[in-house]
Structure formats: C-alpha cells, structure tokens
Task: structure prediction
Amino acid sequence: MARAPRGLDAPRGRSSMPMRGRPPQPSRDRFGRATEWIARNMGTPWFLVALTLFCVAWIAWNTAAPENLRFDSAANGFTALTLMLSLQASYAAPLILLAQNRQDDRDRVQIEQDRQRAERNLADTEYLAREIVALRIALTEISSEVVTRDTLRSELKSLLKKLDERAPSYTGDSTAPPSEATHTKDTPA
Result:
C-alpha cells in the first residue's frame, strides 16, 4: 500500500494513520472524568429509582421464585444483596470524594482567574478615572481663560508686528520696515 505524499500542512512525525505495534495511550484524565460521571449520576432521581427497583426485583425474585432458582436466601437476611449494596456504597463514597476534589481544583483555578481579571479591571478603572480627572482639569483651565476682544486684538497686533519685522519691504528697501499705517487702517479699531 503506497503512502500518500504528505504536504506542508501536516506536521512532521504525525500521520493520520495510527502507529503500528503501539497501543493507543489512554487519556490521563479518563479516570477522573469517569468518577465525575458516576458521582453526577449517583445523585439523580433516576439512579435512586433504578436502585430501588433493582432491590425490589432482587427481594421479589428471592422470595417468590421456586427454591431451586433462588440465589439469595431470605432466611439469611438477603446476605448477597446486603454485600452488593455495601460494596456499592464503599465505592461510591471515594468516587464522590474524587469528583469533589477535582471540582475543588477547578474552582481554585477559576477563583485565581477571577482574581486576576478583577485586578486588571481595577487597574483599567483607575487609569480611566485618572484620564477623566486630567480631562476635567484641562477643561476647567481652558474655560477659566476667557479671551476678551481687547486681549485678542492686542495679541493679533503683536503677532502682526513680529511678522512685519521679518518680512522684506515692498518699497524696494529691504532694510526699512514697512509702515504700520498700512496695516492698522485695515484692522478695525
């Protein structure tokens, strides 16, 4: 049987066919999941109804069936049934404890993740609060500086004067500053 050529999309060392000569490895967590499944199902009403029906059928068979077909004697107090129920209880308790321990581990991890998420949320909230305060301070500084018409005119005149000092003269004399009268008559007083 010829192997299909492997493309670049398949990782090296992995193939779609199982390796020969080596049995598949069971999941490490399979037993834990099985115990949780058993513990989860033992607490259901269906399990209790099924166990009750099993006990009723056991007792009914061993009391009403012919003597040669009975396997547990009512005279001995249904010893085999008692042993089966105590065996079931002796396995049920540790399985329930294992499932609870696994749930505690998951809860512990979830609590740690929630704590880290809460710390991040707190840091983000503090950052946003600082930014809002900075914006409020900036807005109050801007709103407290009321610009009057006279202040604006004086600032514009000083800027115009600085521009005139830097600009060359249009009269041909580049060293003489232009007259201020030409600019002041254009600006309203």
User: Anything to note?
Assistant: Residues 1 and 17 are 13 Å apart (CA to CA). The first helix runs from residue 30 to 42. The mean pLDDT is 79.
